Amino acid sequence: MTDDEDFADIYTRTVANIRNALLGDESVRRPGAGHLIQNPDPNAFQSINIGRFTEDEFILGGMVRAVFRRSDSYLLGFYVENRDASRRVFYTFTEQVDGRTRDMVPGSVYPGTRREHFGWGVNYGNLAGTTISRSRLRNAVRDIYHHDPNTSTHTLEGGVETLAVALAEGARFQAIPAYIAQAIRGGRDWEVRRHADEITSWDQDSQVVLRARAADPTGYQEVWQQRREYVWNGARVLLTALDLARRLLPDQAADEEELTFAAPHQGAHRERLPPCSTARPRMGWCHWASVSAPSPRRPSR
Length: 301
Prior knowledge:
6 helices; alpha+beta; five-stranded mixed β-sheet; two-stranded antiparallel sheet; single chain; Ricin (A subunit), domain 1; about 15% strand
């Protein structure tokens, strides 16, 4: 059993792996890529080891993997295998397309693996009420690992939403893993609460940045000096403080190290932002850049 400090470190390293992998050129079977995308494939997926969250010596890191779609950073499934790989299950979300139910993860991802679909939609059920803690992260991954694939997946819903906030949103918003890690180190919980509005309003806020970029692609002129409220720490910061200008430059995007926190919509899709449902936001959606604002001084309770 690790202590709170060690678990917080495991969590922050996992979020860093997600950020790197979503922007790396590795395939789904080679997670944790550190290279920047040169020609991003919008249909590519990345898997990230999360087995260490279980704090179980018999569950190795790669035996439970969270699978993300690179183009929009959706958390769309979990791959599970037992110790000798005699049982492999891939739990995924589905969506309705032209009146038909379609798996949101193509068959080319973990081909030949048994698939089971979550019995609820990819939208958050209660984003504001989602609570993150060491025990919730641990139990969420344990429940996925031990789940009987012949039974209903509805028992996993709360844990999956916990992981979606901690991992998918944590990979986008620098403040989220800072809050969560600080809470874990103090033996406390962190609840989304009022920050749900910030998460679900990123599409609207990002339009301000796109307009600034259209007015000044260099990122240095007066338009970038406008202030925007950043509710994570109650401050109003300059757009330049969000470190978005360089990441939006099409000619420099592939070469900037800052792309570790860059947009999921890149290349030809850079300016096409996804719609955001504020009523039932999707897990890992609406946010195409992780802001580099100051770390919070204390968790919101």
